[in-house]
Amino acid sequence: MLDSPRIAIIQFPGSNCERETLLAVRRAGMVPQEFLWNESYKTLTDFAGFIIVGGFSYEDRSRAGIIAALDPVMQILREQSELGKPILGICNGAQILVEAGFVPGVENAQISLALTDNKRIHEGKVLGTGFYNVWVNIRLSKEYQRNAFTRCLSAKDILHIPVAHAEGRFVLPPALLLEVQQQGLHVFQYCDTEGHVVDAFPVNPNGSMANIAALANKRGNVMAIMPHPERTPNGDAIFHSMRDYIVGGYLPHVDPLYYQPRPYYFTPYRAQGEECIVESIITDNQAVTVQQTLQQLGMAVDVHRYVHWEIQGGDIEKIKQSGVLFNSRKERLSCLSLPHAACEGQGEGGGNHKYFLIRAKEDFIGQQRQQLLQDHFGINGIKSIRHGILWHISAKNGNITNLISKVMRTHILFNPYAYDCYGY
């Protein structure tokens, strides 16, 4: 029935917020139905709307949302969104929508922004890295877009709802941020209890640019929201709005958001300090999942992954022995020493394989490890510690250059708005 729209609750391996989402959808007078990523896609066309739930799809391997974003089901959802059907991505669902290019919806669904590591800094100190869970306040932005998820809200409403994520910081290039703000696509912003948008921790729990808590596409039928409105009746207005939008008729088609992402070029790596390369001595599920995903996309590759540290200053041996850089029960220092490596069967980029070093533009992990070594281990003289991930891509057959171009187009190794890539 039109008055009780059927909503598909999309789940991937590792999703874990389906129960709260089912309850929220029912409270709004809609009929939820769970849909697993490996079910027949044909049934998706029968639904009036879609919600991609929170959790940790594929254990956030490589980075949050990217593996699910490359799943074939996302192409079906893209086709349904083009019909005007509403799609809401919550937390991990938001990360998936960003990595799949659904928001803010530039031409050809290109990736144009990132949801990346939380930024929790006070007085120059990193307060923590990784997962952060707290109740926050959000409000409609001053220029908010009236869309499929805001119909039952007013500018005076403040929603008190929880956040629970490790990679919830919206990062946009300046030109795109300006366009988003002018069109009101930054639908919700973090605020204090009085509704003031304060760009500082803890009001802004993750350092998101412009305090963005949710971002929509230009048409207004797709929204990526990092907080969890489904976990409390405080967020029910978002789901009631979704129902009203469906019952009232879908929004008309609009042209994509006008913004052209700049091409990305990676540069050769030049070490600025002592390198420390760490390898797993157990199965590296991150590398396995990246390899399997690329193979499913038709790329015959072998993938290996290492943790890369670059250390300037301090007692290098004490730092290595501290246990701060790696867990000796699961990892070990690698004999890999590029670009002049001499490990068996390994060597510098060239031949039919390549190495790429991925580093966060804002490296909070490296900063936090430096603080820990100085404050708790008393190792002085450390000028800097940089953290990165070193990927080794081998071609099983064919030309490595052509293969790498295909791999890079998937963005599976890094999001260029949050990370830098170096040829290693």
What does this 3D model show about the protein?
This protein has 10 helices and 20 strands. It starts with 5 loop residues before the first strand and ends with a strand. With 424 residues, the chain is α+β, with helices and mostly antiparallel strands. It folds into 2 domains: 6-248, Rossmann fold, CATH 3.40.50.880; 267-423, no CATH class. β12 (212-216) and β13 (222-225) form a beta hairpin.
Radius of gyration: 22 Å
Strand content: 25-35%
**What count of domains describes the coordinates?**
2
Topology, number of strands: 20
Tally of helical segments: 10
Keywords:
424 residues; alpha+beta; Rossmann fold; 2 domains; 9-stranded mixed sheet; 7-stranded mixed sheet; 10 helices; 20 strands; 26% strand; globular
Care to give the gist of this entry?
This protein has about 425 residues and is α+β, with helices and mostly antiparallel strands.
Layout of strands and helices, then pairs:
Blueprint lengths: L5 E6 L6 H10 L3 E6 L12 E4 L13 H4 L3 H9 L5 E4 L1 H8 L14 E3 L4 E2 L2 E2 L5 E9 L17 E8 L3 E3 L2 H10 L4 E4 L20 E5 L5 E4 L10 H13 L18 E2 L5 E7 L4 H12 L4 E13 L2 H6 L9 E3 L19 E8 L3 H12 L6 E14 L4 H11 L8 E5 L1
Parallel strand pairs: 1-2, 1-3, 3-4, 4-13, 14-20
Antiparallel strand pairs: 5-10, 6-7, 8-9, 8-11, 11-12, 12-13, 15-16, 15-17, 16-19, 18-19, 18-20
